[in-house]
Design a protein that fits this description.
By secondary structure, the protein is of the alpha/beta class. Helices cover 37% and strands 19% of the residues. The structure holds S-adenosylmethionine.
Length: 241
């Protein structure tokens, strides 16, 4: 099967010993021995809780609908850049956690878990691979996350809940699906009860939001730990767009 060229994450190297050694070296270099020990502690905690956030190749998974070729593969967002993004958004909207956090392509639920720990009143995921959906449900229950919902659905057909305040994308799919998702978000804009922000991490299809008359571009944030960027947008008020 031909792999998509730009948005697809090739994770085959994740399973090599070399990769693990490089990750550990990078952690020690950037976070010191303390950071390294913190990682080991977290790893042991997840093992003890029997939760699973390991990567999965999208081509090994069944999905709902026929958009698998347009999907990125699963791996969880890194904790450090993710928390930096949440802190950054809070600078724009100090009350952001009063609304709901929504992750399009929520995988095994890592961002949902972290967003809950960050203080969001509700965390919501949409995931189209039944295996990942089921693992995320187990993970979130074992980690005692309260007030979460995960929908087993193709993101292209999903309408955001009215209480959403932050929408998160971690390079989940290609332009075709992202355009449909954009249109659904916009279609419902008279129903949202909070200001709605978007954090688009690894923003391969950024043009869709850059060119959209409904979104205001706020900032491109850079994480030096992972060399990843995140673009932040705000849905314009009804009278502005
Ligand atoms: C890079 S992973 C991100 C995982 C998660 N957001 C995180 O940050 O930990 C992309 C996820 O998007 C999901 N996905 C891709 N296309 C989708 C679609 N059309 N509908 C729902 N989920 C989709 C994949 O199955 C995968 O779990």
């Amino acid at each position: 099967m031909e792999k998509a060229k730009n948005f697809y994450f090739d994770i085959s190297h994740y399973y090599t010993l070399n990769h693990h050694i490089n990750v550990l070296k990078n952690v020690i270099k950037k976070e010191g021995i303390k950071g390294f020990l913190k990682r080991i502690k977290k790893h042991l905690y997840f093992k003890y809780k029997r939760v699973d956030f390991s990567p999965e190749n999208i081509f090994d998974l069944e999905v709902k609908g026929d958009n698998r070729e347009k999907a990125s593969t699963y791996h969880a967002v890194l904790e450090k850049p993710f928390l930096e993004i949440l802190e950054k958004i809070k600078e724009y909207e100090p009350d952001i956690t009063k609304g709901a956090f929504l992750d399009y392509g929520s995988g095994k639920g890592f961002s949902l878990y972290k967003a809950y720990k960050f203080g969001f009143s509700e965390v919501i995921g949409v995931e189209f691979a039944p295996k990942l959906y089921q693992i995320s449900m187990n993970n979130l229950k074992k980690l005692k996350v309260k007030n979460f919902k995960v929908y087993l659905e193709d993101a292209a057909h999903f309408s955001p809940p009215t209480n959403v305040s932050l929408i998160f994308f971690y390079n989940p799919f290609n332009e075709e699906i992202m355009q449909k998702v954009h249109d659904k978000i916009v279609e419902n804009r008279d129903k949202y009860t909070n200001s709605v922000y978007i954090a688009y991490h690894y923003p391969i299809c950024k043009e869709i939001f850059d060119k959209s008359e409904y979104f205001e571009f706020l900032e491109e944030a850079y994480c030096s730990f992972s060399n990843e960027i995140t673009r932040i947008y705000k849905l314009k008020d009804l009278q502005e767009a």
